[in-house]
Design brief:
Blueprint: E1 2-9, E2 14-21, E3 31-34, E4 38-44, H1 50-59, H2 64-73, E5 81-87, E6 92-96, E7 105-109, E8 112-117, H3 122-134, H4 139-152, E9 162-168, E10 180-186, H5 192-207, E11 216-217, H6 220-232, H7 238-244, E12 257-258, H8 260-267
Antiparallel strand pairs: 1-2, 1-8, 2-9, 3-4, 4-5, 5-6, 7-8, 9-10, 11-12
Length: 268
């Protein structure tokens, strides 16, 4: 009753899962990701334990295929399970138990595993895979593009309810001391995938990274404009205002420059 895409971007050192389903809060069950280690989607009659157990095996050096074999081989209920795995090297594997409800199946390629059950047809998984491999942008953007295309191709044939996106990168989380780069969920919505993409846009605005060379020197007329805009909002410090607006991750360390995205929000 779910379709998912497990993938990585080895250059960016990111691993992620995007998933949608006619099931509430699918993000609480399906996606399991650890930066530098790998990513797993466990679904159908989901064995939630496949997530943490699989990540431990990946952390120990097991390949994606070996993790699938280990988890399903020791599970008497594996005929009702579905599983997708990408390991630390970008190798992938997918598994669909013989008793999963039609249409059910998966497809793998370099750096991704796409799978789903109770789908409108095989073309939903093909939409996941083909869109992901052709898409450009960040891993999160590519995952969401693929999820939306698969959803619009028919997705879960029972309908729509929830979606989730998890991307992890070593040191990539808030404050830099964790790997939680993105963790977004739409738990109950009439059209959850576009809503998930909207949330990704909010996340990118607040926590995205502008290249250092694109920052603007905070001097002269620009400094005067920023001071005036802050005063109009009742603040005398860019740091304080940015903290109120959750933009503190976009500030220049010594305050001598300003992120164009921060300036855009301040002006708007």
């Amino acid at each position: 009753m779910t379709f998912s895409l497990v993938a990585c971007d080895l250059e960016a050192k990111q691993w992620g899962v995007a998933v949608a389903s006619k099931f509430p809060a699918v993000g609480a069950v399906v996606p399991w990701v650890r930066g530098g280690t790998g990513a797993i989607a466990t679904q159908a009659l989901a064995a939630v334990g496949y997530g943490p157990q699989g990540l431990e095996r990946l952390a120990g050096g097991a390949s994606a295929q070996r993790v699938v074999e280990d988890l399903t081989g020791s599970d008497a209920g594996s005929s009702d399970r579905q599983l997708g795995v990408v390991d630390a090297q970008g190798a992938s594997a997918t598994f669909t138990g013989a008793d999963c409800m039609d249409w059910a199946g998966g497809r793998t390629g370099d750096g991704y595993a796409a799978q789903g059950n109770i789908l409108a047809g095989r073309h939903v998984v093909d939409a996941l895979a083909d869109t992901f491999t052709a898409a450009t942008g960040s891993l999160a953007e590519r995952l969401c593009q693929a999820l939306l295309t698969a959803d619009r191709a028919g997705g879960d044939r029972r309908g729509r309810q929830s979606a989730a996106l998890v991307v992890r990168q070593p040191g990539g989380g808030y404050g830099g001391d964790n790997d939680i780069l993105i963790d977004l969920r739409v738990d109950d919505h009439q059209d959850p995938v576009p809503e998930l993409i909207r949330l990704l846009g909010v996340h990118q605005l607040l926590f995205g990274k502008t290249a250092p060379e694109q920052f603007l020197p905070l001097e002269g007329d620009l400094a005067a404009e920023v001071s005036s805009l802050l005063a109009a909002r009742g603040h005398d410090s860019l740091d304080v205002w940015a903290g109120v607006e959750n933009l503190e991750e976009r500030l220049w360390p010594d305050g001598s420059k300003i992120d164009p995205e921060v300036l855009r929000v301040l002006r708007g």
